[in-house]
Amino acid sequence: MDPRFDVPRRAAGGSGGSANSSPALGAQSRRRKMPPRPADFKLQIIIIGSRGVGKTSLMERFTDDTFCEACKSTVGVDFKIKTVELRGKKIRLQIWDTAGQERFNSITSAYYRGAKGIVLVYDITKQETFEDLPKWMKMIDKYASEEAELLLVGNKLDCETDRIISRQQGERFASRISGMRFCEASAKDNFNVDEIFLKLVDDILSKVGTDIIRKGLSNDDGTKTQSRFHATLLSVKILCRSGHINSDSVAEL
Amino acid sequence: MDSNQESKDGSDRSELVSEDGKNTKSVLCQRCGCKVLCPGMAVFAEKELFLPAMQKKRSLNSTGDSVDGDTLTSHWLVDDMYTFENVGFTKDVGRIKYLICADCEIGPIGWHCLDDKKCFYVALERVNHA
């Protein structure tokens, strides 16, 4: 039995209306003073793509530089918890790198299931990694939540001279998939890597957050709103939490 | 048990552990300073755990025989992995996942057993406090 329930559902497009006003930004100015703040959000992000495109480097690079070969080459990193601050919120990311499981069907569906963000990576110098993209999309369609934010990353921008896949090709691919963003990056030069994750998190927050936060803030009268905001934050947390792979499912993996 | 170590570390320990048994300081990576835990987020716990040596190639590649490492007894314990600010988990070694620095990946700094989903240990001796 899985206590997981569906991720926050939004009025699906429908009566769009005042969607632009986004009072969620006001949240920033309303920061409360709170003692040790665990985290406002918990999001799970997975990095997928064909072998050798640099998934692991992306995960490491988002983190920092230097790493020690010791642990890595022997046991390998399974996943990481990383904390970022965005829009005045503290967000815990659980980042999964799927290196070593590149054969499409060998990645367990559990990876996809809870993911709020999926980073799909190809190598701009390797045609086949780009041609694999539709297969990866099939996996995403099959297993991932429809709510998951997708980001296509053309990696190895540092090898510009060996480029085979043009930026336009990448853009075109992404544009055909609704809601998929695109960027190019270099894990080696650390170009655009932090941005990738922050962008993705920002998108997820917009998606997951605004509806609920907007509701909470809708009547704009000072102090009352504040406690309301607090309450809504909590509910966001619960919603997010329901989606992640928790330690229970880690055990299954 | 291991009263030597106790008395040796006793004085620093009172600086690190609050009256209610929590960490008074931030827990940081010894090498890169990456923040593992915020103050007050973990409780002090004693448990004998074997951690392979840090910075040693193949030290985790436990094929049984001579795994270099230490049996450590003083740990910071948290019950939810999302309590960590930053941390990495290795792939399974038997039923164990070792904790490493999320940034520089030095480790193991801690220990998690898949059979006990609510226990994540970080060894005091393998982290800095500030």
UniProtKB/TrEMBL annotation, chain A:
Known cofactor(s): Mg(2+)
Annotated GO biological process: autophagy; endocytic recycling; exocytosis; protein transport
This protein's record includes keyword Cytoplasm: no
Family: Belongs to the small GTPase superfamily. Rab family.
Protein name: Ras-related protein Rab-12
Biased composition range(s): Low complexity: 18-27
InterPro entries named in the record: P-loop_NTPase (IPR027417), Small_GTP-bd (IPR005225), Small_GTPase (IPR001806), Small_GTPase_Rab (IPR050305)
Ranges where the record places region Disordered: 1-36
UniProt keyword list: Autophagy, Cytoplasmic vesicle, Endosome, Golgi apparatus, GTP-binding, Hydrolase, Lipoprotein, Lysosome, Magnesium, Membrane, Metal-binding, Nucleotide-binding, Phosphoprotein, Prenylation, Protein transport, Transport
Family matches, as Pfam families: Ras
SUPFAM superfamilies reported for this sequence: P-loop containing nucleoside triphosphate hydrolases
GO annotations of cellular component type: autophagosome; endosome; Golgi membrane; lysosomal membrane; plasma membrane; recycling endosome membrane; synaptic vesicle; trans-Golgi network transport vesicle
A GO molecular-function descriptor: GTP binding
Subcellular locations according to the entry: Cytoplasmic vesicle, Autophagosome; Golgi apparatus membrane; Lysosome membrane; Recycling endosome membrane
Membrane topology summary: Lipid-anchor
Keyword field contains Transcription: no
Catalytic function, reaction form: GTP + H2O = GDP + phosphate + H(+)
NCBIfam families: small_GTP (TIGR00231)
Enzyme Commission no: 3.6.5.2
Automatic annotation (TrEMBL), chain B:
Pfam family, one: Mss4
One GO MF term attached to the UniProt entry: guanyl-nucleotide exchange factor activity
Coiled coil: none
Subunit comment: Interacts with RAB8A.
InterPro entries (alphabetical): Mss4, Mss4-like_sf, Mss4/transl-control_tumour
GO BP field: post-Golgi vesicle-mediated transport; protein transport; small GTPase-mediated signal transduction
Protein name: Guanine nucleotide exchange factor MSS4
UniProt entry tagged with the keyword Methyltransferase: no
Its job: Guanine-nucleotide-releasing protein that acts on members of the SEC4/YPT1/RAB subfamily. Stimulates GDP release from both YPT1, RAB3A and RAB10, but is less active on these proteins than on the SEC4 protein. Might play a general role in vesicular transport.
Gene: RABIF
GO CC annotation: cytosol; membrane
Organism (species): Oryzias latipes (Japanese rice fish)
Key words, A-Z: Acetylation, Guanine-nucleotide releasing factor, Metal-binding, Protein transport, Transport, Zinc
